[in-house]
Amino acid sequence: MASSNNGVSENGKGLIVSFGEMLIDFVPTVSGVSLAEAPGFLKAPGGAPANVAIAVTRLGGKAAFVGKLGDDEFGHMLAGILRDNGVSTQGINFDQGARTALAFVTLKADGEREFMFYRNPSADMLLRPDELNLELIKSAKVFHYGSISLIVEPCRSAHMKAMEAAKDAGALLSYDPNLRLPLWPSEDEAREQILSIWDKADVIKVSDVELVFLTKNDKIDDASAMSLWHPNLKLLLVTLGENGCRYYTKNFHGSVDAFHVKAVDTTGAGDSFVGALLTKIVDDQSIIEDEARLKEVLTFANACGAITTTKKGAIPALPTETEVLSLVRGSACNLSKGNFPTSVMLFLFFMFSLLFTFLFTYFML
């Protein structure tokens, strides 16, 4: 991928560099069962930072991935998938002594996701600072990362060096912790390390589960969210699954409703959401300061996340812009035809009841 030093590619679109892990997700062929109960598994490429990179290119953006894969068939397959999806692989290294990471993931009948990882160590954990493609990283307009790369050395040092290089070059830093507790030595260690780089990020996205974990507070409300605010933060997002998302900036905050679809597998939905957001703001960060425009972008991002849940696996389910706009327009059409969400119907019923009571009381007097 050709790009200039200011992070703008030859076709005028800003480059989004995604740093971290890429692996193989094995998803049960049957939904709603535990990993032990699954009769078989489907192989699906995954890894949150890689998911974000492909989400960007599916939507017409420019993305590169920086990380390390095993010098094995799975590793080269993953690199090929990135290239096939238009993601630059100039930042990928291959390790001859470690395997590509594997993860078994399922959505159980109670709605909880279950993970089992095979990385002892995997290649992504062994990325060294001296292996980084700093020229590529410095050319980013947005540098996106998670927290899994913070767990062990030398990858942690590589993460810190890459993040600092991108920041010094003027990139917007985007952080999605993507909490995976089974990978951490303890909950306290996970919380401490995730928060250790918190004040470096310009944009942070957390899920409702991550909000509870990081704040040690069961309440999912504005006060809990704002306890995670830091002075240099431009945008804080809390995704709420089927309840949409909440957004917080220096000057305003609010919420955006979700799109209701028939969910099959929620893996990758948050990554799709982030990819959509970054694609929309990479070339116009002033969107963050304009509430009306930001809500439009988050509506688009919610639609991306919703569509991703309708298929098994993360990367195979990431939508194109055409698919997203179809869902957004279809929802708007339903509203115009009077097919309102239940919350709107209840509000209208409540207001009608108040009006009826007032009129009845008035005429009786």
From TrEMBL:
Its EC number is 2.7.1.4. Keywords: ATP-binding, Carbohydrate metabolism, Kinase, Membrane, Nucleotide-binding, Transferase, Transmembrane, Transmembrane helix. Pathway: Glycan biosynthesis; starch biosynthesis. InterPro entries: Carboh/pur_kinase_PfkB_CS, PfkB_Carbo_kinase, PfkB_dom, Ribo/fructo_kinase, Ribokinase-like. Gene3D superfamilies: 3.40.1190.20. It catalyses: D-fructose + ATP = D-fructose 6-phosphate + ADP + H(+). The chain crosses the membrane at residues 344-364. Residues 15-320 form the Carbohydrate kinase PfkB domain. This is fructokinase. Pfam families: PfkB. May play an important role in maintaining the flux of carbon towards starch formation. GO terms for cellular component: cytosol. GO terms for molecular function: ATP binding; fructokinase activity. Belongs to the carbohydrate kinase PfkB family. One of its GO terms (biological process) is fructose metabolic process. It is an enzyme of class 2 (transferase).
